[in-house]
Amino acid sequence: MSLNKRANNALNTNSYTVNGISQAVNNQTLQITTHGSDWYWAVCAVMVCSTFAFMGLAVTKPRTQRIFHYITAAITMVASIAYFSMGSNLGWTPIPVEFHRNTPQAHGNYREIFYVRYIDWFITTPLLLLDLLLTAALPWPTLMYVILLDWVMIVTGLVGALVASGYKWGYFAFGCAALAYIVYVLVFEARKHANAMGRDVGKAFTYCGSLTTLLWILYPIAWGLCEGGNVIHPDSEAIFYGILDLFAKPVFGALLIWGHRGIDPARLGLHIHDYDEKDLAIEMKRPGANGTNGHTNGITNGNSTEQTV
Ligand code: RET
Q: Where do the TM regions start and end (predicted)?
């Protein structure tokens, strides 16, 4: 069998044209080269393999113990599609640059802005937070509020990236304020809560929470150099965001699942029921039981951190 090396033709196939003129060819828009596209494909491949690995690990567990595997696999699955889009030179739009630079790294009147990146983050960052905050067993109102602020951060980042004038930095400032609150919850409230759940939970949270805090602070720096300040080339942007995403998704996910290896989700208040569960089966056979027997209303016993899923 012979393996023929095929050239990456995504840039020609999916070039952005205005009135029939390719924007890459007329040199107006600063966009990725084939190297950037190749890198996006490579990251896509890692995301796909990680998704299969996390799903493979999930099926080795009983259904009641798979919640963190499912959340983590969903994260890399969504990222696979975003990276497929970016590798194919799709999911972007040209935006006039605020800062015109005459360097080879950042020439052109327009810059390609990958809005698909933000669609990915809009879906996956709340899932990452869910992974972390469920590990810490934080009360659900705090969890919901942190996710709301996370959406504020991502949407302001997207809007700022699509704005041509200096007003983009206003959106950026709102996004940074939202990130500051998220980091506060992770570093103080959630860490304290996780430690109170036991040494193993505290350890799993500390590893994954520290990695997340460090990485998430680097994203606005990347934004400032790419979408915001137009300082670095879109190929370098691909590498910067790509490395961050690889650590924030597959590496984070592997660490989290490893940290959860000896932890029953029920200890975190996540009582998940299955039809072949022993206690539930006995309860269902009880005379007069109607099959719902209190498991459908989401209310469990007096423990305030309990959540019925
Ligand atoms: C933006 C710009 C606006 C200000 C801030 C930002 C932060 C983004 C972050 C993104 C995290 C993404 C992750 C992706 C996972 O793969 C939107 C860049 C603060 C923190 C973890």
A: 39-60, 67-86, 118-138, 145-163, 169-188, 200-219, 239-258
